[in-house]
Amino acid sequence: MAEIVYVLCALTSLACAVLLLRGWRRSRARLLLWSGVCFVGFFINNLLLLVQLPGMSLETQEAWRILPALLGALALIYGLVMETEA
Question: Which pLDDT value is given to residue 22?
Answer without folding.
Answer: 98
